[in-house]
Design a protein that fits this description.
CATH class of the largest domain: Alpha Beta
Strand content: 15-25%
Shape: globular
Radius of gyration: 25 Å
Oligomer: single chain
Number of domains: 3
Bound molecules: flavin-adenine dinucleotide
Number of strands: 23
Distance between the termini: 78 Å
Helix content: 25-40%
Number of helices: 17
């Protein structure tokens, strides 16, 4: 990861002092570590802190910035930008609420990015080298490479281990589009440090990162074209939910070109021209191109062969359900080995590694219930199976849907687009999955994730009292709808008999 920071910027200097201290001296390695952690992103930091907290002797190696993608070039900067974008949209839409803003919204983009850098620096002490040293972890700055099945080398120093965890994450894929490299492009590693708002931005890739940033830049005032090679945005998500998000992106001014691929790019008169294939031949002119077209695992340079750790350059390090690699001493966690590339998934996997690697635990990844969310407006959150996955797998299921327009809080807030969709077992009170599309869907999905983790069904959700008026009533209303289906004709007949009898 190269993280372009703004030279001389006070907040970026604070960030670097925490996550890449310029005067850092690597310690003398211990004779042998319980756990050597390679990579100090979420997975690595959680593994290192967890293991050290339990008394293990731990080494943590980071080649770039502690905090990894999430803090430096992922969740944190993106969500800070999204917040500013939401403020701009709220001012734009204020008249819907009877609030007149005479001159409308004007976005001060340098102030937006300054705010982001300040928050990022404020959050960075938690991931700092000093904090981890304070936790008793030996922090090494440098690139780690295996030199055998029980040792890695960093900056000429040998770290011997009983167990190691590869937590080296992933990076943006660079699609092999002719002319892309010559034209120059942004990825998540560089987009957060652009000095000024691009007048025209072409976003290549309509997954979560592409959609979130397309909407944010459109709300800031860029003319955004979002190009996706599937027929819908967020192709892995529930199609009804993705459609609502697409409508919202379009309302914000994003031009959607879906089912299209970029054939080639050339620079003409200072403009970047993207030539599209699929559909009618078309050209898109842009001042900047953001590539958000998938991820590749950081397997290079680790010399995994020396440790007998198998890997694939697309899928990453090969692990079993307990996150053990083909070398029984070596485990992996996070983006490097997971299809679910999320911070909270990396965190959960790191906890599994600590148990399994250090204490011969039997924790399994397949037991995890992992929700996720795309932080567009409205948000799209998912846990468990989508309706389409249940169909594709021929799983018997029933679907219950509650439109957010019939949830009072959503109507009161003027945010009634969206729904809660619950996929349930047809015979048992078992939740198979849920899709929520709504503002704050990422918060709402937590209740369903809890229910699935604790193996609670919709009856319990229906019995749970939800404060009025809140959006989570959407979840309760689905549960109520499910409950009503339990009133079979026989039960209804019995109730009627009982009530008739008790009238006297
Ligand atoms: C724009 C964007 C927004 C995102 N937003 C969200 C979000 O809102 N919510 C969410 O859950 N997820 C989000 N993600 C995904 C999230 O950032 C990742 O899933 C998460 O950071 C993965 O953590 P990790 O520890 O596996 O890897 P990383 O954070 O990538 O850490 C790996 C570390 O290993 C280091 N490393 C690599 N090779 C070596 C080596 N040989 N020696 C030493 N160190 C090495 C790297 O420098 C890096 O610091 C977002 C991603 C992007 C791109």
């Amino acid at each position: 990861m190269t993280v372009p920071t703004v030279a001389g910027d006070e907040d970026d200097s604070r960030l670097l002092a925490n996550v890449r201290p310029p005067d850092w001296a690597n310690p003398e390695p211990a004779p042998r570590y319980n756990l050597v952690v390679i990579g100090a992103g979420t997975a690595g930091l959680v593994a290192a802190a967890g293991a050290a907290g339990l008394g293990a002797r731990v080494a943590l190696v980071e080649r770039d910035l502690l905090g990894g993608e999430c803090l430096n070039v992922g969740c944190v900067p993106s969500k800070a930008l999204l917040r500013s974008a939401r403020a701009a949209a709220q001012v734009r839409d204020a008249h819907h609420f009877g609030v007149v803003v005479p001159d409308g919204a004007r976005v001060d983009f340098p102030a937006v990015t300054r705010r982001m850098r300040q928050i990022r620096a404020d959050l960075s002490p938690h991931d700092s080298a000093a904090r981890f040293r304070g936790l008793g972890v030996d922090v090494f700055l440098g690139r780690a490479a295996f030199v055998g099945n029980d040792a890695v080398e960093v900056g000429g120093k040998m770290l011997r281990f009983a167990r190691a965890v590869v937590a080296t994450g992933s990076r943006a894929a660079h699609p092999p589009i002719p002319g892309l490299a010559e034209a120059g492009f942004l990825t998540n590693e560089t987009v957060f440090s652009v000095p000024e708002l691009p007048r025209r931005l072409a976003v290549v890739g309509a997954g979560a990162t592409g959609c979130e940033l397309a909407q944010a830049f459109a709300r800031f005032g860029s003319a955004v074209t979002l190009i996706g090679n599937h027929d819908s945005i967020l192709p892995a998500e529930d199609p009804d939910a993705a459609r609502l998000v697409a409508e919202s992106l379009a309302r914000d001014g994003t031009r959607l070109l879906l089912g299209r691929e970029v054939a080639a790019i050339e620079v003409r008169g200072g403009e970047k021209i993207l030539r599209l294939k699929g559909g009618t031949a078309e050209e898109v002119a842009a001042d900047a191109i953001l590539v958000a077209a998938g991820r590749v695992p950081n397997v290079e340079g680790l010399n995994l062969e020396a440790a007998g750790v198998e890997y694939d350059t697309h899928a990453g390090v090969t692990v079993d359900d307990r996150l053990q690699t083909t070398n029984p001493r070596v485990f992996a966690a996070g983006d490097i080995c997971s299809r679910l590339k999320f911070t909270h998934a990396a965190d959960a996997m790191a906890r599994i590694v600590v148990r399994n690697a250090l204490f011969r635990g039997r924790a399994r990844v397949s037991d995890l219930v992992v929700p996720w969310c795309t932080y567009t407006d409205p948000e799209l959150a998912q846990v468990g199976l989508t309706e389409r996955e249940a169909c594709d797998r021929n799983l018997p299921h029933r679907v219950f849907v509650q439109e957010m327009g019939r949830v009072d809080r959503a109507a009161l807030d003027g945010e009634s687009a969206g729904f809660v969709k619950m996929i349930v077992h047809p015979k048992r009170d078992t939740i198979l999955g849920a899709t929520i599309v709504a503002p704050h869907a990422g918060e709402m999905i937590a209740e369903v994730a809890l229910a699935m983790t604790a193996k609670l069904g919709l009856r319990t959700l229906a019995d749970t009292i939800h404060a009025y008026p809140t959006r989570t009533e959407g979840v309760k209303k689905v549960a109520d709808a499910f409950n009503r289906t339990r009133l079979t004709p026989t039960v209804k007949w019995l109730f009627e008999k009982w009530l008739a009898w008790s009238r006297g």
